[in-house]
Automatic annotation (TrEMBL):
Transmembrane segments: none annotated. Coiled coil: none annotated. InterPro entries: Beta-grasp_dom_sf, Mopterin_synth/thiamin_S_b, Sulfur_Carrier/Prot_Modifier, ThiS/MoaD-like. The lineage of its organism: Bacteria, Bacillati, Actinomycetota, Actinomycetes, Kitasatosporales. Pfam families: ThiS. This is MoaD/ThiS family protein.
């Protein structure tokens, strides 16, 4: 089962500069564990282990353009051919 994962610029240091990588897993949690086997350090940037292995607060993850926080979060089920997009949350505004 192949799942495309689009990587934001800030995390490409973990993927040797690749904009997209492939991984496998029945859930988002399994996919992140699979990615860690080839891209050491990426899982820690996505998953907060101290908070019960939940997505980090300032990381947005989309499954086929749908925010996984409105699905089952890190336990969201995946299927062959799905597309995951990782986006860091952006803050700012006028002071």
């Amino acid at each position: 089962m192949a799942i495309e994962v689009r990587i934001p610029t800030i995390l490409r240091q973990y993927t040797d500069g690749q904009k997209a990588v492939e991984g496998t897993g029945d859930t988002l949690a399994e996919l992140f564990t699979d990615l860690e086997t080839r891209h050491a350090g990426i899982r820690a940037r996505l998953v907060d282990e101290a908070n019960g292995d939940q997505l980090r607060r300032f990381v947005n993850v989309y499954l086929n353009d749908e925010d996984v926080r409105f699905l089952d979060g890190i336990n969201t089920k995946l299927a062959d051919g799905d597309s995951i997009t990782i986006l860091p949350a952006v803050a700012g505004g006028m002071a």
